[in-house]
Amino acid sequence: MSESKNSTNTEHLILEAAENEFLNKGFDSAKTTEIAKSAGVTHAMLHYYFRTKENLFNKVFEDRIELFSSSLFLNDRDNDFEIKLDRILESQMAGCNNYEKELRKKTINFLLIVSQMMSRHFDFIVENPLLPRFVVNELISRPERMDNFSERLKDIAGDLKSSFEKDLNFLISQGSINSVSSINLLLDIVSLNVFVFITFPIVKLFALNDSKSAEEFFMERKKENISTILHRLTNDKNLIAEILDVVEKRHQ
After folding, report:
1. Main-chain dihedrals φ then ψ at residue 199, nearest 5 degrees
2. Pure H helices in the chain
3. Sign of CA dihedral 48, 51, 53, 58
């Protein structure tokens, strides 16, 4: 293995160990000695790569924020997206003229993409359940961190907003989607998906039992979140039911 590959692998091992340490203990309680031990490197080697605990934390925090936000973008479709879209369109086009068909297609396309985005974002948090609480706790306990990441967070929010704002505003102007601002729609989506994980230590006390596992609860919660957003965007209950059906079938 070349020196550059060895270096990349070592850095990856350190970051992986640091992520686990920071997410479970937070910045203040995390120990770089434990990170080095978990990564299988010396403390001197960890210092060589990242110099300080703060630098290491910032790298982990930035990487997690990037992954968290990337799961929200609308332009990355499932491989079977067109199959899902065609399946819904087939039952929704009867009696429509050409203009109505085109508008209907754009509406269904938008609603399906939003549903897919919410599903992907929720799945990402299921795989990283400590992340929402970690981010919130660190920003509250050390508000100066916001200064380090404020510009990047603004860029991410702006990119997310612009990724669907044009289509949303057009569909609202045609009366095809209920009126809602892009920022409020984005906040609704993120809030619904994130809240249950931030509060899960409390929620699990009454939401889980012998007949319902955490996995089953999360699947139900995801469907409920998507349904809530779809009802905010359209009053067409039949269309909502069809979209929920194809989203649910993805996981069967």
Report:
1. -100, 5
2. 3-29, 32-39, 43-50, 53-70, 81-92, 98-127, 131-141, 144-173, 182-198, 200-207, 214-233, 237-249
3. negative
Q: Tell which phi-psi region holds residue 234, choosing left (phi > 0), alpha (psi between -120 and 50) or beta.
A: beta
* Beta-bridge mates of residue 67: none
pLDDT tens for each residue of the chain, 252 residues long: 455 556 778 999 999 999 999 999 999 999 999 999 999 999 999 999 999 999 999 899 888 888 887 777 755 555 566 677 777 777 777 778 888 889 988 999 999 989 988 998 999 999 999 988 888 888 888 877 777 777 777 777 787 778 789 999 999 999 999 999 998 998 999 999 999 999 999 999 998 888 889 999 999 999 999 999 999 999 999 999 989 988 776 555
Q: Which two tokens stand for residue 67?
A: 């992954």
Joined tokens for residue 233:
């965007």
Tell me how far apart the alpha carbons of residues 111 and 71 are, in angstroms, rounded to a whole number: 17
CA distance 138 to 136: 6
Residues 6+ apart with CB under 8 A from 41: 10, 13, 14
Counting beta carbons within 10 angstroms of the beta carbon of residue 241, is it exposed (0 to 12), middle (13 to 18) or buried (19 or more)? exposed
